[in-house]
Fold these 3 entries.
Entry 1:
Amino acid sequence: MTTATPFGRALCAMITPFTSAGALDVDGAQRLAARLVAEGCDGLVLSGTTGESPTTSDAEKAALVTAVREAVGDRASVVAGVGTFDTRHTVELALAAEKAGADGVLVVSPYYSRPPQDALEAHFREVADASGLPVMLYDIPGRTGTRIEPETLIRLAGHPRIVAVKDCSYDFLGAQKVLARTELAYYAGCDEHNLALYAVGGAGYVSTVANVVPAQLRAVIDAFDAGDTAGAARSQQRATALIELMMSAGLPGTVTAKALLNELGLPAGPVRAPLRPADRAAVDGLLAEYELLV
């Protein structure tokens, strides 16, 4: 078991800002990244689910890493999402992220093809062998169709560059089993688990909701670290309604995060198809809940 935090504790799964015409908004990405770090994020995860990685090009992914690295310097870690359903392509993206200045890579399970566990393990090892960057595995079976089973994670923990997991498995027992038997840094990938996973030895969180309330989420783990467990619980509970509305009310987190950021005059822009923007009623509901929290 470890309490190491290789990429920080309070990580934001950052949206990818686009211009009104739908192009990558490099300036907006830099401004948003700087704001997130100033308000408590010590790590930024780019081109993940929330960052619309399926609809951004390889060149856009690399440009985003370069721009954000320039904006935040050494004040925060920069982790680049490189996972695809193709091992060869994932390796190419990992090498490009390393060249662009990333501190680590986020590698999701190959989706759609649903490889068995031995093939999944081989995929992750090949990606980890390909570059010098530390790897955060991304376990989100609800989207990929494939679980990274606890025993597979325990074996992968022996690789010197596989150092962390972003956990969206909704298997709290499985996460604790891996925590107890490895030195992998576990990050909550579902905001409702931020405090719970941290309390049993997790490293922190990779949060979509942090795009809009970074300071409020950071306050949860800061209170816990200070020994104020009741205060940490209260802060987590206060955020629950917004977490539910952003993540579990029928719209993807990318859509709800961008809707709120746009309402607040912060860099976001449109989502790319097949995603569609939130309607006015949904935006009004999000904004009302946000205002209650802040």
Note: Residues 229-247 form the longest helix (19 residues).
Entry 2:
Amino acid sequence: MKPIKEVDLIIVGAGPAGLTAAIYATRAGLETLVLENNIIGGQVRLSYTIENYPGFESIKGNELADKIEQQAVALGTQIDEFDFIERVSLKDEEKIVETGDYIYKPKAVIIATGANPKKLPIPSESKYLGKGIHYCGVCDGASYKDEVIAVIGGGNAALEESMFLAKLASKVIIIRRYDYFKGEAKVLEAVEKTPNIEIMYNWDLVDVTGETFVDKAIIKSTKTEETKEIPLKAVFGYIGTEPKTELFKEDVHLTSAGYITTNESMETNIRGVYAVGDIREKEFKQITTAVADGTIAALKAEQYITTQKER
């Protein structure tokens, strides 16, 4: 039988939203435990440069993640990144989070597990995953120094990662199925000024080929249906994200796309359970909106826990 531990608050996920919630909750005097099955800092740590976070004209993603983590730890937040979560049961009356080592019974839970990159919808995605199909330029870009590579996507992530990859590759080809981008105009302008980035508007990735590793991309015109091959060594996908809600789908209400529904107080359908950051259904998913979510959830959790103690 695993030891049972009671804590005030468990935060599942240590991205900007989860860590911000931890900072506010710990400052409010709550015994706070953050559980993280992946890297602390979330997707921010994988961003090469961040230029839209207040207080920093420009900062590396890993540096910003380190600063937020250090602030939370200095205040007394406990972060456990090695004890994987096996089971979660979230009810109005009782909340249970079971890991490999413990059974936790928190008074409140904040879900901040974020989202994973969407897989490229091509037949050979799984065959070439890690062999020319990638989803993180910071992680895998160095393997393609002085090579020709492609980026698929139309938002800020695709544009920003293209500029990072352009520092390594001989050429970056952005394959864009429409004649416009959804990213910020300033970021697009910077991409257009980067000499070794080519934008192919109105083309779509159909598949990739190669013996063991990718050596060609097959693309099709979205206007003429023309198909052609491009010699290259890698394709990096940035076509959106999918929420990591597998642990919670039996208890919390989800949208058809799998995101957790909350009100503006970050409250889910379960009392004492909150959702923040990219896991939550909302229009804008930015670092600044994530930390705002974390702030609100921590303050509401503190109110909820205090009310429960007074009963």
Note: The mean pLDDT is 94.
Entry 3:
Amino acid sequence: MTLRRGLVLGGGGITGIAWETGLLFGLQELGVDVTEADAVVGTSAGSVVGAQVTTGNTLADLYAYQVSTPRPAPLASIGPGVMVGFAWSMLRARGELEAFGRLVGQWAVRRAAAGRTPTVEERFAAIRERLPVQEWAGDGRLLVTAVDATSGALRVFDGSDGVSLVEAVAASCAVPGVYPPVPIDGRPYIDGGARSGSNADLLADCDRVLAFTPVDRAFGPMRTAGQLLGSVPHLVVSPDADSVAAIGKNVLDPARRPASARAGFAQATAVAPLAREIWS
């Protein structure tokens, strides 16, 4: 019997992209190539990595970029003001997940309209730079998550609805209050992490699931990847102590990218036996 294997790539900022890339490359070097998954869910940072690995980019090339010296760039952060916006939206949502997405989404729209975020065009340029191939693979394997800022509902992009890969990934990476909501089909979309750091439940129909989650927390109505997968045989991997130290306090700091990638690569040694057991 052929097993249907799923790969979850969770959110976690610039350092999350680096850590996931290092982990994936480290596993591949140890003989566990999980990029061959039958289905890949990408949320925020994970949508970038998912887009990269499903469109033919080699992990060796992706890793080489992650460990290269970052170019000088404006430094973004999820600062106190943004955290207050998140907390106030969560409080007002009273435990309803879509209500939180709607409230934090509307707050993000107002913040962008006030000029407190980069422009949508600037974000598209940043996403294009991260995607060597900017077209969907066409096999339907990649599921990119975002949240409708008007309704709070989850939307999943897979390339079948005319939405470009750049638009989908930009929407999935639109951290509320830090980056602007992305307009798609006349509606604003924000980071898929406004529903879940992993959205792992989208792969609940798989026989085996590996979840790589830089930030995997249960907060308010949000659930961890393990909680979302329930009885599905799975392995959830989050940064170990060395990776946490490498990532640092600001997940959007490009200067932390090389160390985060190297830490993910090193962590693969401990993860490989467990990943191989699940994947086989």
Note: DSSP finds ten helices and eight strands in the chain.
